[in-house]
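Weekly puzzle thread! Below is a chain. First person to post its structure in token form gets bragging rights.
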Amino acid sequence: MKRNIKIWIGAGSVLLLALITINLILIYKEDSKIARSYYIKDYERVALVHQKAYLEKDALIVPQEEMRITADANALSQISVRPGQKISMNEEIAAYKTEEATFEQSKLQSEVNAYENELTTLERILRRIETQDINDPITTIDSEQIDDELSITIEAQMTQGSPVEASATIEKQIAEVERTIEILEDRIANLSFSNVLTSPIDGVIGDVIDENGTITFIIYTDEKNLITYVSEKEWEEVEENQSVELDSSIFENDLVDSESFPNTEEETITSNEEVQQDTTGFVIEKQSIPALKTLWYKEMEKVVEMPEPRSFEVRIDLNNSIGNKPYASLTKAKIIVNEAPNAFRVNKDWLITKRITVDAETKKISQIHSIGEDGKIQKTEVEIGFDDKGDTIVTSGLPNNRIIFNEQVKNAGSQAFFPMPIEIPSKAILKELDWEQYAKYIIF
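Winning reply:
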């Protein structure tokens, strides 16, 4: 009898264990259809913000423009400046010998005439371009049909460009020629008046070079730009007119002066907004050839590791002037290479990517696990904007403040529960509570 009881107990135990095992397999196997609750450890609540992807670079403060003025060394009676000297517009750089001044005027006038001919040619080219359909971005420019006198430089910039791009190129060239003519005419006027060579701008004497019988004065403008150097891969990400966020410290002294210590809260807020606007810039040029070892390249090379094996120069213009930092000062620049005004940033590894076929066409879709309004798990299809440093920017598909979590095998419609939130009150709060408040907190 006892032996039969033991057999039945053993058989019952084996049957119970088998039932439990089968139940666990049915519930926890990967393709199980049985709903269950999941413990979610890695999760976050997403929020709509302006998402940006940056290329963060060291940058050097450089003059916005370097102007070169040359003169015959034998024609000068004296040189009045030295490298590093601050100079104002129309201030004397050098003095001509009396007998040489007239010859220099004639030489400069010949240069003016040549530039005026170039200006006439450019204006004629511009008029011919503007007669084309300037609103058609597909139309390209055949430079050979525009003008026989078109320079190789302008032709290279225009070829395969739209009318809009070609017009912009010519207008830029016209502005440069007009500026050169203005400077030359000022030099002629000064020679007529006092036989001296003067500075056409406010700035700093960068160098005075005496070479092969010619004196070259290099003048740096007071207005400053930034330059940085990028690798070939980074060069592909950078485009002209991209916005750049700058280190506010390069403007600090100027901003303090301009704020004049506001007295009201409203004035303080306004000043802060202005500061934020002033600490930005934009890419004005990225060079298409490897960087030459100029003065600024060598200065940059002294303080940072340059991209290898080749570097390409990128120039950044500023929305505010820098007045209290010397040339070659190092700063930081964050070039915005991608952005989405209203988007979410999620961990790239949390996305589920798969391919589906619709109407004989295969496309890739991205999904992420989230908690729906009913509190249950669901797979949500999302639109991807771009990737940035291990994160993915999601542009649509998720409501604001939706809870998302890491990819695991989970059934749609299942319940989820999260770790118990633990918040330790501060010492100051504990001192303010009495025993009744403690009791109420513990009970309820």
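Puzzle host: Confirmed. Bonus trivia for everyone else. The longest strand covers residues 330-347.
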